[in-house]
Design a protein that fits this description.
This protein has a domain at 103-200. Helices cover 77% and strands 0% of the residues. It is built from six helices and no strands. The protein has helices at 2-29, 38-47, 78-146, 148-153, 155-192, 197-200. Helix 3 runs antiparallel to helix 5. The longest helix has 69 residues, at 78-146. The protein is elongated. The model has no long low-confidence stretch (mean pLDDT 78).
Length: 201
C-alpha cells in the first residue's frame, strides 16, 4: 500500500515538472509581434549611419601632442590674467605675513620657555641649599647632643648657633616657597599669552 502511494506521488511530481517546464518554455520563446530582442536592437544600431557621427573622445592613447587642447574654454582676457596675478600676489603677501606672525609667536613662546626654565633652575638651587642647611644643622645637633659634657660647657653658644640655623632654614624654606609661587604665576601668564602647554610644563 505504501509503495503504491510513493509511486503515485512520484508520478504526480514528474508530471507537474514536465507541465511547468513546457509552460515556461512557451513563455520565453513567444514574443509579441511588435517586440524585438536586445540582439536585434544592437544589430540595428550598428547598421544605422547616424550613430557613426559621434564626438571625438580623447584619452591617453590619442591625446594630441602638437595641438593645443582647450579644457576650460576660451583663453582668459588680459584683465582676468591681471586679476589672477594680483590675487596670487595678495595670497603670497598674506602667506608671508602669516609666516612672519608665526615666527614672532614662536620666538615669544621660546622666550617664555627660557624664563620658566630659569625659574625652575632657581627653585632647584634653593631646594638644594635648603637641604644642605638642614643636614648641616642635623649633624651639628647630633654632635652636640651626643656629648653631654660639651652641651653643658657650650650651652649658650649652641643655643645661639641653633637659633641662627633655624632662622636660616626658615628663610631658605620661604625663599623656596616664594620661588615656586613665582613659577606658578609665570605659568599662568604664559598660558594667558597663548604659549602651548607642552612648552609650559
Amino acid at each position: 500500500m505504501m509503495r503504491i502511494k510513493y509511486v503515485g506521488l512520484g508520478f504526480v511530481f514528474a508530471l507537474s515538472t514536465i507541465l511547468l517546464g513546457s509552460f515556461a518554455g512557451a513563455q520565453t520563446t513567444s514574443q509579441t509581434p511588435g517586440q524585438s530582442s536586445l540582439g536585434d536592437y544592437a544589430r540595428k544600431v550598428r547598421k544605422d549611419p547616424a550613430t557613426k557621427a559621434r564626438p571625438k573622445v580623447f584619452d591617453n592613447d590619442n591625446l594630441p601632442t602638437d595641438d593645443k587642447l582647450s579644457v576650460v574654454g576660451p583663453a582668459p582676457t588680459a584683465a582676468e590674467a591681471n586679476d589672477k596675478s594680483a590675487d596670487s600676489n595678495k595670497d603670497a603677501a598674506a602667506a608671508k605675513s602669516a609666516d612672519d606672525e608665526q615666527a614672532k609667536k614662536q620666538a615669544a613662546w621660546k622666550a617664555w620657555q627660557d624664563k620658566l626654565t630659569a625659574q625652575k633652575d632657581a627653585i632647584d638651587l634653593a631646594s638644594r641649599e635648603l637641604n644642605v642647611l638642614q643636614r648641616e644643622y642635623e649633624l651639628r645637633a647630633a654632635a652636640m647632643y651626643a656629648d653631654v659634657g660639651n652641651r653643658l660647657r657650650n650651652a649658650a653658644q649652641w643655643d645661639k648657633e641653633e637659633a641662627d640655623y633655624k632662622q636660616k632654614i626658615a628663610d631658605k624654606a620661604k625663599a623656596v616657597d616664594d620661588a615656586k609661587q613665582k613659577l606658578e604665576d609665570m605659568k599662568e601668564e604664559a598660558r594667558k599669552a597663548g604659549v602651548p602647554a607642552a612648552m609650559i610644563d
